[in-house]
Amino acid sequence: MAQRVTLRKRQPYNTTSSRRRIVKTPGGVLRYHHIKKLPTAPKCGDCGSKLSGVVALRPRQYATVSKTKKHVSRAYGGSRCGGCVRARIVRAFLIEEAKVVKRVIKSQQKATGGRS
User: What start-end ranges are recorded for coiled-coil regions in this protein (predicted)?
Assistant: First the structure.
């Protein structure tokens, strides 16, 4: 007959926070080992892809890890992926260029006397 295994926590339900594995201890007794939740990698705020260069941890563990593991050395380092940062820079540049072109066209129209 199989050996009975008793729960080590009070919570009896089979939930994601209460996952467990049966392990045989060195004394030959079967015990439940409770398994922690798996970490998920941080995601880009714009496109939702995984951020490369940032370690995947449970939320509370980020407090004990060094800053170099939580971000990459770039603008929006631990928040946005490289492609989205590039798109933001290009968009800002093109908007500024459009403003300059608008200003030039307006000044040319003033110089010609308002005729097209």
Answer: none
Question: What backbone torsions phi and psi does residue 18 show, to the nearest 5 degrees?
Answer: -125, 35
Query: Is residue 51 a contact partner of residue 44, using CB atoms and an 8 Å limit?
Result: yes
Three-state DSSP at 84 gives helix
CB neighbour burial string for 69-80, b if at least 16 within 10 angstroms, e if fewer:
ebeeeeebbebb
Distance CA 59, CA 36 (A): 13
Question: What would the pLDDT profile of 4-42 be if each residue is shown by its tens digit?
Answer: 999 999 998 999 999 999 999 999 999 999 999 999 999
* Positions of E strands within the chain: 20-24, 30-34
Give the Cα separation of 86 and 96 in Å (integer). Answer: 16
Predicted TM-score (pTM) of this structure: 0.72
Amino acid at 30: L
- The tokens for 112 are 């010609």
| Cross-strand partners of 33 | 21
Neighbours of 53 (CB within 10 A): 15
